[in-house]
Design a protein that fits this description.
single chain; 361 residues; mainly alpha; A middle domain of Talin 1; two-stranded antiparallel ribbon; two-stranded antiparallel sheet; 14 helices; 2% strand
Length: 361
C-alpha cells in the first residue's frame, strides 16, 4: 500500500509539474513575454516544482528532516546521477556562461546554505534571505536575456511554443485552469510522497533524513532526469547541463527559502549528520563541476562514469551508516584513503594536459 501511495505521489508530482509549466508558459506567452524569458524562469523553475511541493509539505507536516534531506539529496543526485548518465549517453557540451556565471552562483548558494546551517537551524530570516536572492537572481536573468542573440531566442522558441489559435488551451481561462490543476496535483502528490516516505523509513529502520536524501530526492528529481536525458539523446547543445545547474541553484534558494519562510519561529532543524557529512558532499559535488566543466568545456563519458560511481558510493555509505554496519569503517577508509585522492589526482592531470578552452560560447 505504501509503495502504491509513493508511486501515486510521484506520478502526481510529474503530471502536476508538466501541467503547471504548460499553463504558465502559454499564459505568459499570451501576455507577450518572450519565449527566452519564459524558458529561463517558468520552465526552468517548473522542473523543481516537485522539490518545492515536497519540502514545503514536509515542513507543514513537521517532517523537517525530509525537507532538508530532499534539497541536499536532490542537488547531489542532480550532478552525480543526472549529469553522469547523460554524459554516458553522449559527451555533454558546456556553455562558457555556465562556467563563468551559473556554476559560481550555484557554488555561492551552496556556501550560503552551509553558513546559515552552521548553528544547526535554518531560521525564517535565513529562508527570507534565500528567497529574496532567488527573486533577485530571476530578475537578473530576465534583464540579461534582453541582450541575448536572436539565435538564443530562436532556440528557446523551439522549446517554448505558444498555443495554436483556436486550440482548447489558447484561451486564458483554460491556461489558468491548467495552472490550478497543476498546483492541486503537486499538493496531493507531495502529501502522498511524504506519507509513504515516512512509512518506508519506519519499516526499513532508517531515519526520515536518509529517506529524504535518497528515495525522495531521486523521486522529486524525475522531471530533471527526463529533461536532461531527452536533451542528451537529441544532441541538444547544453540544455542537459544548464537544466541541472539551474535546478540545483533553485533548490537551495527556492525550496529551502520557501520552507524556511513557512517554518515560523521554530525554523528548520538541521541534523548533525547533515552538517558533518551530507552538506559537505553537496558542496564538494558543486566544486567538482568547475574542473570537469573547464577541461575542454565538455563532460566526457569517462567523467560521467566517475560521477555515477560516486553517487553509488554515496548511497552505499548512507545505507551502511544507517544500519551501523561492521563494514562501514573499512568502506570509509578505502574511499577517503584511495578512491577520492586518486580521482583528484586524475582531474588535476587532465586539467594540466587539456587546459580550459576560452572564448567560444
Amino acid at each position: 500500500m505504501n509503495l502504491l501511495l509513493f508511486l501515486a505521489g510521484l506520478g502526481l508530482l510529474v503530471i502536476g509539474a508538466n501541467t503547471l509549466v504548460r499553463g504558465a508558459s502559454k499564459l505568459a506567452l499570451s501576455f507577450g513575454i518572450s519565449p527566452l524569458v519564459v524558458g529561463l524562469t517558468i520552465v526552468a523553475f517548473g522542473t523543481s516544482a516537485p522539490e518545492v511541493a515536497v519540502s514545503v509539505g514536509a515542513v507543514l507536516d513537521g517532517k523537517t528532516d525530509i525537507a532538508i534531506g530532499n534539497v541536499v539529496g536532490s542537488n547531489i543526485f542532480n550532478v552525480l546521477f543526472i549529469l553522469g548518465i547523460s554524459a554516458l549517453i553522449a559527451p555533454l557540451v558546456v556553455n562558457i556562461q555556465l562556467i563563468r556565471q551559473e556554476v559560481p552562483i550555484m557554488l555561492g548558494a551552496s556556501l550560503l546554505l552551509l553558513a546559515f546551517a552552521f548553528d544547526g537551524k535554518l531560521s525564517m530570516f535565513d529562508g527570507g534571505v534565500l528567497f529574496a536572492l532567488l527573486v533577485a537572481y530571476t530578475a537578473f536573468l530576465v534583464l540579461q536575456s534582453r541582450r541575448e542573440t536572436q539565435a538564443a531566442n530562436d532556440e528557446f522558441a523551439a522549446e517554448v511554443k505558444p498555443a495554436e489559435p483556436g486550440a482548447w488551451d489558447s484561451h486564458w481561462a483554460a491556461q489558468v485552469g491548467l495552472i490550478a490543476v497543476g498546483l492541486v496535483a503537486l499538493v496531493l502528490g507531495s502529501d502522498y510522497l511524504v506519507q509513504a516516505s515516512v512509512s518506508f523509513a519506519k519499516a526499513m529502520g532508517v531515519s526520515d533524513l536518509v529517506i529524504g536524501l535518497t528515495i525522495v530526492a531521486a523521486g522529486t528529481s524525475m522531471p530533471e532526469v527526463a529533461t536532461s536525458i531527452s536533451a542528451a539523446i537529441k544532441g541538444e547543445r547544453d540544455i542537459a547541463v544548464g537544466n541541472v545547474v539551474g535546478s540545483s541553484t533553485f533548490n537551495i534558494l527556492g525550496c529551502l527559502g520557501l520552507s524556511g519562510l513557512v517554518s515560523g519561529d521554530l525554523g528548520l532543524a538541521v541534523a548533525p549528520s547533515v552538517l558533518a557529512f551530507d552538506i559537505w558532499v553537496m558542496l564538494a559535488v558543486a566544486l567538482a563541476c568547475l574542473p570537469v566543466f573547464m577541461t575542454g568545456r565538455e563532460i566526457a563519458r569517462w567523467e560521467g562514469g566517475i560521477f555515477l560511481g560516486y553517487y553509488a558510493a554515496y548511497v552505499s555509505y548512507l545505507i551502511l551508516a544507517a544500519q551501523q554496519h561492521d563494514a562501514l569503517q573499512a568502506y570509509s577508509g578505502v574511499m577517503m584513503g584511495f578512491v577520492i585522492p586518486l580521482t583528484v589526482v586524475t582531474l588535476v592531470v587532465v586539467m594540466i594536459r587539456r587546459p580550459a578552452v576560452a572564448g567560444a560560447p
